[in-house]
């Protein structure tokens, strides 16, 4: 599109205001600690998501709850990146949001390096002015209800969480399910947590008002379940995880597709080529008409040979980087696969530096915001 000189100045001014607003949001988020929106008990895990398991505790009598989160502070080896982050006063944690269609989306965010990383993670997921602003910057929404109070105790691989009455006031079963699943997924990101147990108002319940079960112990589960075909019975199907761009454009959504075939890399790549289900608002990763000629694995590297349509990926607004990231995540979910090489009609294809690097997380908050700014900038200065 063509801009006059005056219009260009106006767009540049708008971009400047966008950047200033984002900077203000970051500052506000740091000032307004999420603990002011939630009533969370004191907890003392080691201040890093790579915490080591706590020592076993004496089992609590049925129906009782310890309101203080306690995790044994055992030393653990940190990666260089994690150490640099801690030295800078922050650590990385994975927060679970939802998109406009109810898909749960993991996002790596930074929180202050202090005791209580699990508490800080959950508190970022509670609806509030500051948290909603942060989620909106990512094109996402918070998943826990406003003013939700939580008491958390972690020991022996089990996280016991006592939710306040707000958990009983969710609008429907989908909101209830997302709340419970998001909490379980966020807590089990920590190596110290294998299972999660729920109480509501200090009491053990069988289910929430709309029927979502909160009884027993919950383990990490597959996200955003869908069936490859309506003809497949769930008990006969096997899961593969696929990654598709969400409606926000810069976010990858993990989808667990139940398939009636061997759940291996060949199946996953073929299903990725098929794209999202017909009823899904998610976007396809690979160009229309792109097919798989062959998939092989050699020395931990998946070698994928696509048809010629694959090169159309470069025409994406980001040069295909998000799609390539989705491909790498889809392939490396399988044990023993550490990298990906791409071929087009049998010839090696180089998509560009770092485009096939294994990401630490499907989504990283800073990268999402940077990508959005770059996209807006390119639109402003795009002239015919």
Q: Which key terms come to mind for this protein?
A:
384 residues, four-stranded mixed sheet, 2 domains, alpha/beta
Number of helices: 8
In whole angstroms, how far apart are the ends?
A: 6 Å
Which residue ranges are poorly predicted, with pLDDT under 50 across at least 5 consecutive positions? 28-87
Count of strand segments = 15
Mean pLDDT: 82
Give structural notes:
The chain is α/β, with parallel strands linked by helices and 384 residues long. The protein has 2 domains: 32-218, no CATH class; 225-380, no CATH class. Helices cover 27% and strands 22% of the residues. It has helices at 5-31, 80-87, 117-123, 129-137, 173-187, 265-274, 321-331, 365-380; strands at residues 43-44, 69-70, 90-98, 104-112, 150-155, 158-163, 195-200, 217-218, 225-227, 238-245, 252-259, 292-298, 301-306, 339-344, 347-349. The strands form 5 sheets. Strands 5-6-7-8 form a 4-stranded mixed sheet, with no helix packed on it. Strand 6, helix 5 (173-187) and strand 7 (195-200) form a beta-alpha-beta unit. Helix 1 (5-31) packs antiparallel against helix 8 (365-380). The longest helix has 27 residues, at 5-31. The chain is globular.
Give me a quick take on this structure:
The protein is an alpha/beta fold and 384 residues long. Helices cover 27% and strands 22% of the residues. The chain has two domains: 32-218, no CATH class; 225-380, no CATH class.
């Amino acid at each position: 599109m063509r801009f006059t000189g005056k219009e260009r100045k106006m767009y540049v001014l708008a971009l400047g205001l966008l950047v200033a607003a984002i900077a203000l949001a970051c500052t506000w988020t740091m000032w307004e600690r999420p603990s002011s929106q939630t009533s969370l008990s004191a907890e003392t895990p080691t201040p890093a998501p790579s915490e080591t398991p706590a020592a076993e505790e004496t089992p609590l009598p049925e129906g009782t709850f310890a309101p203080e989160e306690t995790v044994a502070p055992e030393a653990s080896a940190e990666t260089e990146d994690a150490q640099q982050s801690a030295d800078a006063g922050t650590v990385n944690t994975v927060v679970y949001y939802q998109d406009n269609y109810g898909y749960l989306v993991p996002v790596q965010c930074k929180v202050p390096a202090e005791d209580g990383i699990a508490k800080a993670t959950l508190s970022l997921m509670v609806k509030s002015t500051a948290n909603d602003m942060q989620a909106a910057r990512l094109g996402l929404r918070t998943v826990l209800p406003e003013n939700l109070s939580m008491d958390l105790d972690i020991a022996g691989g089990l996280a016991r969480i006592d939710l306040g009455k707000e958990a009983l006031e969710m609008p429907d079963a989908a909101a209830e399910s997302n709340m419970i699943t998001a909490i379980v997924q966020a807590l089990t990101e920590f190596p110290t947590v294998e299972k999660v147990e729920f109480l509501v108002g200090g009491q053990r319940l069988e289910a929430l008002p709309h029927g979502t079960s909160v009884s027993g112990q919950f383990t990490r589960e597959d996200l955003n379940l869908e069936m490859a075909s309506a003809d497949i019975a769930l008990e006969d199907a096997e899961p593969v995880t696929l990654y598709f761009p969400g409606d926000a454009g810069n976010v990858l959504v993990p989808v667990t597709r139940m398939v009636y075939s061997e759940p291996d890399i060949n199946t996953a790549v073929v299903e990725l080529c098929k794209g999202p289900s017909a009823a899904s608002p998610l976007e396809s990763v690979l160009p229309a008409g792109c097919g798989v000629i062959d998939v092989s694995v050699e020395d931990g590297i998946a070698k994928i040979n696509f048809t010629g349509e694959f090169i159309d990926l470069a025409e994406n607004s980001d040069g295909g980087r998000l799609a390539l990231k989705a491909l790498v995540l889809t392939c490396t979910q399988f044990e023993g696969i550490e990298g990906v090489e791409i071929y087009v009609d049998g010839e090696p294809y180089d998509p560009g530096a770092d485009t096939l690097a294994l990401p630490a997380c499907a989504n990283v908050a800073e990268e999402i915001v940077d990508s959005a700014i770059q996209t807006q900038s390119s639109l402003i200065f795009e002239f015919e």
